[in-house]
Design brief:
By secondary structure, the chain is of the alpha+beta class. The chain contains 13 helices and 15 strands.
Length: 495
Amino acid sequence: MKKIVLFSTLIIFLSSCGSGGNGELIGVQDRKVWNPTDPYGMVYIPQGSFMMGPSDQDVPFANTSQARKVTVGAFYMDETEITNNEYRQFTNWVRDSIKATLLFADGMIDDDRFAIRVDKSMGEDDFYADETNITDPNSPEFFKLDWDEIRRYNKTNRWADEELRRSLRDLVATTEDGVEQPLFLRFNERKKGAYGGEEYNTRVFVYKYKVLDIDRASRKDQREYQDYETSEDPEGKTDRNSFFLDRKVHIYPDTLCWTHDYAYAFNDPYTKNYFHHPAFDDYPVVGVNWHQAVAFCHWRTEMMNGFLRSVKEPTLPDFRLPTEAEWEYAARGGLEHSPYPWGGPYTRNLKGCFLANFKPLRGNYTADGGAKTIQVKSYNPNGYGLYDMSGNVAEWTMNSYDESALSYAHDINMYNTTKDMTRNQYGKDWSNIVSEDDPMHEVHQRRVIRGGSWKDIAYFIQTSTRTFEYQDTSKSYIGFRCAVDFLGRDKKDLE
């Protein structure tokens, strides 16, 4: 009895001087200390403000050149453009995801080996609803793919089991437009005919994900809207699920862009080899449209945060494309009024060597060391440690393109998005697709690209030059790099 009393007293004493703080406001205790490390391959860009826009005269006399003071917070950015080999990791992940999912559904792979049983009734909270879920994630129990095991098997066996390979030959997947396609190309579509090896049908390389439409959710008239005929929610409350949008994106690069961009140029070797051959692994990926770049950022986020959750570490913010303001601020490298990332008004150094890969002189593409794209890090970085912010390939940003954006967009990390966020003629589906009859339709379809490319003259590789391309367009001269927010004011606060 004495032991019980002593034990109870000890528990009361410990609880009284634990998280309660003796009645004082001390905050939640035992929280993890946030000491972030720089994401691999990214550089830290400190917060600051700059004059966004041209620092020189309006060269093309377009009468749209203007400048304004813009402030951005601290963030990280990839030191180089995303390379072919980095993007291939994405396509291979989607390929293996489709294979494993179809094989599981066909009963050809062991549930206990390649899939994890998730029982939400037991308190399991790791059930993000994406394409790695094999059964309905809304059910009390479902399966998701065990990617660690799939990678181990694929590394050692390469799906070598003959029974599995026979099953793969017969599998059918669904493309982003709902059309069923075989996993492997038919014999008549293969380069080597009926006697050649198996080739994957890249039409089925579809990445599925959900995205939260924060822009629409931030509007009071949208988050308090209610369909009184069908909704069971309290009056004035919108079902939060309506703000999540489903995305299905075909993610394989358009390897034919080298030919259809330059119909009368001999670019066949690039068409056949650029994305496939190891010689081009460290070259920037091209043939990727804006939607594919956004999907890559989402996948990269899930890959990183999935690992961090597995080791019980705080997750990172979402990887994303940089805003137009972030891109220009980073490209300047801390130089306020310089037209180029390296400083000064010239494209050559003191030795007469060109400082970027672009179209110099009168079409002498090789004068700068490269006829088309070249390896990343072939030129010196700017003041922030970023490579190829001018030339090589132009880069997608998040912003929709409008000639007068600098006149009306906010001066805090200027971000112009002109998505339709009304419900009038689009009904209850809350579609954010702008009607073709809407005057803002063309604006929404255009996305800002920055930095110029190997085929552009010097004007387009200036840090302030704005241009655009349609978001569903793939070009041989457009790539991208990712950005991610730094959580906090400055890295110095953590030292």
